[in-house]
Amino acid sequence: MLEAGRTATILRHLKAIPFSQVRKTMGTARRRGEPDIFFLARPGETRRAVCFFFEVKRDGENATPLQSHVLGQYRAAGAVAEVVRSWADVKAILDKEGVVNT
Fold first, then answer.
1. Could you give the 3-state DSSP secondary structure of residue 36?
2. Which of 69, 72, 73, 94 is deepest in the core (most CB within 10 A)?
């Protein structure tokens, strides 16, 4: 499946999660290196929201050096920032972080 199809599938699942917001970032020359998906979710009723950034790649592809650098910056600021290849990858990350209803 192409990256666009994978991204659409992931977005469809993320939009169904309550108490969350999801955005597909638009790649432009001014935003090179930015992850494909921004997701904000509150894991549990008493915890504060967690910020997620997902860079979607096809099987066998890796993030560019610039994308890896940007993901590292988000991680350093406390976000969860990962390269993913499927909804199953995203679901595993959300489960690990305690986001319910995935």
1. coil
2. 94
